[in-house]
Amino acid sequence: MRFISTRVHGIMDYLMGVLLIASPWIFNFDAGGAETWVPVIIGIVMLLQAIMTDYEMGMIKTISMRTHLTMDLLAGLFLAASPWIFGFSDTVWAPHVILGLMEVAASLMTRTVPTYAHSRNPVSNAVNDITGNHHNRL
């Protein structure tokens, strides 16, 4: 069931991108190898993707929401599997798996059409996001 609005997903994208970039230092696994750079690179890509997605939080709007969600799914799976792909699972794996699975879950629970595709009224969109009323537009 897709119940996360694209607007909320956009906010989550920016927060997750920053968290991924900072995670090696927050969770103390900044050894300088793949364990450090995989989340940093995915975080940078996530921020760039958010900027370029055609949704409420995008700025350039060149990537469709469906493509964005597919990229999120693949990035989340890659992040979750990276400790075993790159051989650092004996030193750290939990942050990669947890954040990766969060990304997978968000990609599967987010609506595929931005709210503004139905209404260009930002007040109406905000009220509909808060109330969950996406069938009877204001």
Automatic annotation (TrEMBL):
Protein name, per record: SPW repeat-containing integral membrane domain-containing protein
Keywords, ordered alphabetically: Membrane, Transmembrane, Transmembrane helix
Q: Which organism is it from?
A: Adhaeribacter rhizoryzae
Tell me which residues make up the SPW repeat-containing integral membrane domain.
Answer: 9-108
Where would you find the membrane-spanning parts of this chain?
12-31, 37-57, 69-86
User: Which Pfam families would you find in this protein's record?
Assistant: SPW (PF03779)
Tell me which InterPro entries the record gives. Answer: SPW
